[in-house]
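Q: Joint fold for the lines below.
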Amino acid sequence: MSKQKAVLSEEQIKTRRGRSVALAVTLGVLVAMFYVITIVKLGPGIMDRPL
Amino acid sequence: MTMLEQTQGLHEDATDLGGRGSVSDYIALLKPRVMSLVVFTAAVGLVMAPGNQHPILSFISILCIAIGGGASGALNMWWDADIDAVMSRTKKRPIPAGKITRQEAFAFGMVLSFGSVLTLGLVANWVAAGLLAFTIFFYVVIYTMWLKRSTPQNIVIGGAAGALPPMVGWAAVTGDVTLVSIALFMITFTWTPPHFWALALVKNGDYQAAGVPMLPVVAGETATRHQIVLYSLLLLPVGMAPYFLGFASVFYGVGSAVLGLVFLGYAIRVWRVREGDAAKKTAMSLFKFSLFYLMLIFAGLLAENMIGLV
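A: Joint structure:
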């Protein structure tokens, strides 16, 4: 099997970094969003639920 | 070899691993301009619905509807890459431009579709989520994959997908479908044919080259002009329906009547001016006014609700 690696151009590295940052931001927003949804939906009873 | 055949193999190469698309290319896949219309009409449905929903949940519901609408745009571009490459209006889209592969667009669209539907179900309710899933299914499978290439009635029936967002917004609050939300649906549904046929009159050559059986291509420009006037006539009472049904004030009633009459006026001009550049200009004026019409109708409903006129 060839161990040759594709060499990315400056442009490709730049767009990949942009996509990575966008994905990281999206994941962060999703985590924050689900945290807020949980608080809003369960309200003050969040610590008072049957286990 | 036809233009279509030339573009058929577009980025279908299995060895093409993609990875060229920038963030803005992925945003373009979501059809941001269509998305803004979806967000606006869905927000009107949500605000008009009776009941109390936490503002944060309302905001996230709208976000889900927007992402669901964007996902169907991405799946539409995945399927239509071959004809998009032929038409001047669409050939700069990310797939025909070679920035994103069809597989990437498909994966992107599917992930966003499932993500938005499931999140809406959890945040609001499963009726709204079901309606959003139906909207995406209708736009991608019924309109894009089936009707668009097979019948000149494509945008009449397919228009249902674009008309559903206010019903989804309404259902996100109430969990049901009512006469009021159906009336909101009917406004966009009746508005869609004259809106798209006006554009089709201007871009007739494009659709012909791409082999899309739009009404002007199949039935001719005269028949299309008749249909535009008919639907514009129908839109007048449908646009006023919120007033007749008692969920908009007399101000809205008068405003929507005036807007509907102006719309009809533009349609009649399209019907009368049939030759040369003047014909294209009048069709383009109708297309532009139709966007303004829809925005004002929904803005009127939103404003009346927010200031408590109804």
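Q: Anything notable?
A: Chain B has two domains: 24-177, 189-310. The CA atoms of residues 27 and 218 of chain B lie 34 Å apart.
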